[in-house]
Amino acid sequence: MYLPHYFEENRLSELHGLIQTHPLATIAIVADGEVFTAHLPMLITRDDGEFGTLHAHMPRSDLMWQQFVHASDAVAIFQGEQTYVSPNWYPSKQATGKQVPTWNYAVVHVHGKPRAIEDADWLFAHLNEMTDAQEAGQRLPWRVTDAPRNFIDKLMGAIVGIEMPIKRIKGKWKMNQDETREDQLGVATNLRAKKDETSLILAEMVEQRITT
User: Fold this and answer.
1) Model confidence over 85-124: pLDDT tens digits?
2) With respect to CATH, is domain 5-86+101-178 assigned 3.30.160.100?
3) Taking each helix axis from N to C terminus, what angle separates 149-156 and 120-135, rounded to the nearest 10 degrees?
4) What is the pLDDT of residue 108?
5) Helix or strand or coil: residue 146?
6) Which residue of 51, 132, 207, 209 could cross-link 166, Cys pair, CB 3.0 to 4.6 Å?
7) Contact 4, 170 (CB under 8 A)
């Protein structure tokens, strides 16, 4: 990932936080000269290893998991909030006209060596953990134990677990840090004016990174 220093985010708490709030990852490996990809919700265990560990599961019928042993590494990409930025939002555009459109976004790239797990006890614990994390905001959270165990066991036979200790983790928060303070404030103001949830979150992210 191209990562100018002013867009770089190194705080592990911020990186883990984006993974938790945007758990759907694009994971890719190269094995035997072929690229394999999948889109999987992943859980982060923050205190497992130096940078944490990712856990997920995928269909047994997706042969990508069989290629883990042949791949040297994998990358899991987590996409956070993102938006288009108009040149009209920059005060400097009004003065000089020297601005062009851009795109603001936050993204985390995680590198590691994944391994497939077929142990039924591991899978059952993982499914409970993932379900509890995603159901936490529901008025009446659904639990894995709400379904008959023989039904769950049958479904577990169709999936394979994934564990990926994190070797490297990089974050890119592209929030106009390469612009002047006045132009950053202009972007934040126009984002707040849109009033939707994503724009308000992005406005705060820009404001947190305003040049002093």
Assistant:
1) 999 999 998 888 888 999 999 999 999 999 999 999 999 9
2) no
3) 110
4) 98
5) helix
6) 51
7) no
Q: Which residues contact 201 (CB under 8 A, 6 or more apart)?
A: 81
Closest CA to 84 of 102, 67, 106: 102
User: Please, are residues 77 and 23 in contact by the beta-carbon 8 Å criterion?
Assistant: no
What token pair was written down for 207?
């404001």
Strand partners, 35: 30
Both structure tokens of 20: 């938790």
User: Cα separation of 179 and 186, whole Å?
Assistant: 10
* Whole-number Å distance between alpha carbons of 115 and 131: 21
The per-residue pLDDT for 212 is 67
Which residue numbers in the chain have pLDDT < 70? 212
Phi-psi region of 92 (alpha: psi -120 to 50; beta: other; left: phi over 0): alpha
Residue 135 neighbours by CB under 8 Å, 6+ apart = 141, 142, 143
Q: Using CA atoms, how far apart are residues 117 and 65, in angstroms rounded to an integer?
A: 9
Spatial separation of the C-alpha atoms in residues 99 and 89, rounded to whole Å: 10
For the chain, list the strands marked E by DSSP.
8-9, 24-31, 34-41, 43-45, 53-59, 74-85, 102-112, 115-117, 159-174
Provide the residue ranges of all domains of the chain, joining segments of one domain with +.
5-86+101-178
